[in-house]
Amino acid sequence: MAFTDLIPWRRGSQAPARTSSENLFSALQREMNALFDDFFRSWGSATLPMPRMTFSPSITVHESAKEYRVSAELPGLTEKDIKVELSGNALTISGEKKEEHEEKRGTTVYSERSYGSFYRSIPLPEAVDRNKVKAQFKNGVLTVTLPKTAQAKAAHKQIPVKAE
Predict the structure, then answer these.
(1) Residues 138 and 145 sit within 8 Å (Cβ to Cβ)
(2) Rounded CA gap, 160 and 141, in Å?
(3) Tens-digit pLDDT profile for residues 93-130
(4) From 3, 66, 104, 138, which residue has the greatest number of CB atoms within 10 Å?
(5) How far is CA 41 from the centre of its chain?
């Protein structure tokens, strides 16, 4: 092996020189690494933080003897941004989050807009009294109360656990 085979570039060239013995996968990996390095390096020079591109609310489902309670954390939204539907055997919560931010520094104006929509569907059992479902939105938390039918309440039985 010659000394020039150890140098990965040609004189006066930025691109790596490929020899016949070079593994194509290592060349591909090196090029992909350079691509990602260049891409993320340009983001690091931004003066404003990057907005979140996706929005997926955290959902909690709780069952008691009388009802099901679904809670969704929706910070920054209002009740007008949220849509709650009961269709078939599923509760669907959807909505849109829109934000705009503008900052002026001297003669420069920094403007940032973000948009995200979400859609969550929670399967429900047949035992929901559809006529008594209620939704309440308070302090960024949506709470949907789904009362159980009388049959479902009557079918609920606590089983005692005995130790041996």
Answers:
(1) no
(2) 35
(3) 999 877 788 888 888 888 888 777 888 888 888 888 88
(4) 66
(5) 24
